[in-house]
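Thread: "does anyone have the structure for this chain?"

Original post by V.I.:
We have the sequence but no experimental structure in hand. Need at least a predicted one for the grant figures.
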Amino acid sequence: MTFTDLPQQPHPIVSYYRVGRLLHGSLILFILESLLYGYMLNISIQHGNPYWIIFWVSFFLFSFVHIFLTIMDGWSRFQDYKKAKDLFFSYGLHPRVANRFIGSKCQRNAALQAARELGMESELKKYYSEKGVKWFHYIPYFMVQDPWFLIRKSFWKRTFLEKYYKPRYDFRNIVLEVVA
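Reply from O.Q.:
Generated one for you, tokens below.
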């Protein structure tokens, strides 16, 4: 691919939103759940029933912790998007690159957004379809293959603690320079 073949590039905030649409929707739901469970917990505390307090504390903590996990997952998927965009631009739609992002729906969304911005989305969708990926494959494949994934360091690192990735190319300025 050459610089002149690039479609108009969106602002990074737009890309961030598109990469994590599912995660941003989940974030809103967890915030709403936390508010509801916090309200119910407050009522339980006023009534003083320890069983209801324990019940609502557990639900509140579950939702509240997931707010932060969702934010961290969104950050990690945006790092995947930047890597995928650089790799697709450098090497094209190579199976080795595409397979790196096939593991979960969120990773595939990140790779698909990167491919969309480079004009390769249909080819990547076709490749994933040929590999047996369906639109309803939301649960990451590693969760099905390894029931002990929660205790693996690689799960936490790859899912929530992805390091900042500095892109090799500034695609927005490349497009502007070519147009000018």
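V.I.: this helps a lot. The chain has one domain: 9-179.
O.Q.: and The longest helix spans residues 50-91.
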